[in-house]
Amino acid sequence: MKKVFKIVLWVLMVSGGSGTMLPGNSSYPRSIFVPRQLSYNPILENALKLDRQCAEPWDYIFSVKPVYTQSVGSKFQEYFTINHKCSLNVQEDGSGDVSSVWFNVISSNSTFYSSQLSFNPKRQTYGGLLYFAAQLSCDFQLTLNTALVTARNDMHICEKNIQNLGTCSGYTTVTQSFANPNRLFGRICGAQTKTGLDDIQMKVIYNPWKGDCVQGDIYGLLGIPTGRGSKARYLFEPLVGSNHVQLGGGTNVQWNIMEHDCGIWSLLGEAKYRYAFKATEWRSFDLKHNGQWSRSMLLVNESDKYVFYPTINKVTFKTEVTPQSSFDLYLATRFNHNAWHMELGYDLWFRSAEKVALCCKQLPFVGIADLKGISAQSPQSASTANISQGVQAGANQMKSDTSFVPVTLSDIACISGAQASSLSNSVYGSVGYAFEVTCHTMQVGINVAYERGSSVNTPDNVTAWLNFDLYF
Predict the structure, then answer these.
(1) CATH of 2-471, one of 2.40.160.40, 2.60.40.10, 2.40.160.20, 2.40.110.10
(2) In this predicted structure, what is the pLDDT of residue 125?
(3) pLDDT of amino acid 50
(4) pTM of the entire predicted model
């Protein structure tokens, strides 16, 4: 079994596209973060579900589950930074990780701007999970699972040890530059919220195995999209729902290990696979030859090499995004004693890296701003510059081109605008109490879960939710 699982996980990783297997890709900072969707999480769907142990036969189940989840820990603060560093050394003279000149933050003559820049992104989600199940004929069931939630994202940008403020209005610090309205995409300016309906997961379940001790089913899954995809206006954009149709399937197994007059001790399991198809979204990109964060550099038109603007304004496009494969392996143990129900469980979740393809046919005739040439009154372009280089003479001074070199679509680094692969392990505990209400079974419960991501691509999360389930 362990060998089979390793083979399945390897296949999923390979299906994530060649981008996930390239050396160094795991350390590349992305311009997008796509969170795990609540609707497809088997822990939130299955915890305290008593459809096979309800005292009375049921035709329908309806559940409302108030939920709150929040990212925790410090690991995720490195997701958006160059080489996944905890903090970045900003030096106008080109001696740090980032030169402030690319953010139009330039101090007065004979002084140089400097600071330490870091992020501490936090995501909160709160609202209600909604679940419905119906018995159909011939051992079939239909289930619907979704969530009506508000997502709140806050980058918590922190810039400290600031020396020699910039002299341009609206660009006195790098923090101000990130929030400046001239930056049309990838902005950082406080918390952003979005309220909406998560994708609707629909399962058609066939239950052919109904033994006294072991029961099992198989199902087909349809993910109905409810969102519009990313718009890239903010670097840490709140997303609820997706615009991707999903198809998949899986199986559930329940083994009653011990049964007596007062209760049952059971083991539960589910394996679920989904594939998400391509849809159009907006994404921002770096340039291959200019490296990480090159989307935060400056561009100029060939017709006016003195007027520069943020590169991200021209390297944010509509793209075809294919999220590809996701896999869950859910295991739990449940003990029912009279009306009380206790449960402990685990979930392994894997999501392959996205594939991103550009929709646009060409870029306008633009090039990397030759800030060194502008200061010398003879600009062309600076096609080999990177985000750390400054105008000041020295080992890390940007180089001017002898003639204007335009940026082309072949320069776009698609990996920078694609969500990386994700892997996490989750554990949870639940306690519920069932009682009769006008001849129907009602259950209330409390649950808590902790999700541990395997890398900076997957934040750690804590989730708490309540169950209000009616079987009728």
Answers:
(1) 2.40.160.40
(2) 98
(3) 78
(4) 0.91
